[in-house]
Specification:
This protein has 302 residues and is mostly helical. It contains 11 helices and no strands. The longest helix is centred in the middle third of the chain and has 88 residues.
Length: 302
């Protein structure tokens, strides 16, 4: 569409240039009238040969003119009549006879033809485009069309460049969206892995705390922790911390980090067991209990 507007605008500019150039072209009638005047001047002021040659130019121009009607033929016949009169004047002059009267008559007729030729030129001159309202209106319409096509071309080019920019921006956004979708899928896979890991850890922790509760219930019912594994003893401590978080914090906060066995001793004392009961539950000697108390006291915060 932009190419059509550009071609149309250039075509109108070309038509306007042809119209203006044709209006300024000289008329063939003007040339003929000038030749009439030259012939009359040379007949009255110059030798016969010069007048003869210029009049012959006038006859040739009339014969070759193309004015769109029967005017060329009529003017050609007139020129030939003048030429015959001029030939008669030349013949009389050759015999030594006076030709002033005939020469003056021929000059007056030639100049009368010149005036007639100019009168026939006058309507053509007055009908030039810059004097005629129709041509002026046509010029205005052409200018309006030219401005319209130029404006349309400018708008179309602006819209085309805007569409190109929007398409490029859209491509960039599409690439970013694709990258984000890829990242989202990768994150979803990672989240799924983490959820599976969390569920697995929860299952392990639930199993771990289940074992700790079993140990806790057995000790509370009078059982012992003889031959208990380190993992089961850690499960016992973790279950007590989960079931009694405030009490567990009260027991362990006054001390620097304690070992698993020392923490178990503090929990058993919090369960109202005596040193003899703890000796029985842990299946250790009395000296070992005293050693527990000593080491725990050394880890007390100052």
């Amino acid at each position: 569409m932009c190419n059509y507007g550009r071609i149309g605008g250039r075509g109108i500019l070309l038509c306007l240039a042809v119209l203006l150039s044709s209006c300024g072209a000289p008329s063939e009638r003007q040339v003929v009238a000038d030749n009439y005047e030259k012939a009359a001047s040379l007949i009255s002021e110059s030798d016969d040969d010069g007048a003869d040659s210029v009049l012959m130019l006038s006859v040739r121009d009339l014969a070759q003119s193309n004015l769109g009607n029967s005017q060329p033929d009529r003017d050609f016949r007139k020129a030939m009549a003048f030429y015959k009169k001029l030939t008669a004047i030349q013949a009389l002059s050759a015999r030594g006879l006076s030709t002033d009267t005939l020469r003056a008559s021929l000059v007056s007729q030639l100049r009368a033809e010149r005036r007639e030729s100019f009168q026939s030129l006058k309507p053509t001159t007055e009908s030039m485009w810059f004097h005629h309202p129709a041509y002026l209106l046509m010029l205005i319409v052409l200018v309006v069309f030219i401005l319209f096509f130029l404006f349309y071309q400018h708008r179309e080019e602006a819209f085309s460049s805007e569409r190109v920019r929007n398409r490029q921006h859209q491509d960039v956004l599409s690439q970013e969206i694709g990258q984000l979708q890829t990242a989202v899928r990768a994150n979803e896979d990672e989240i799924a892995k983490l959820n599976r890991r969390i569920r697995h850890l929860q299952e392990i922790r639930n199993e771990h705390l289940g074992i700790g509760r079993q140990v806790f219930d057995r000790v509370r019912e009078g059982g012992t922790m003889k031959n208990i594994s380190v993992a089961d003893e850690q499960a016992f401590v973790d279950y007590y911390a989960m079931a009694n978080p405030q009490e567990y914090a009260r027991l362990t906060s006054p001390y620097h980090p304690l070992s698993l066995r020392h923490t178990t001793y503090l929990i058993l004392t919090a369960m109202d067991f005596s040193d003899a009961d703890i000796q029985r539950i842990l299946f250790v000697k009395n000296s070992t209990i005293r050693n527990y108390r000593l080491r725990i006291s050394r880890k007390q915060k100052s």
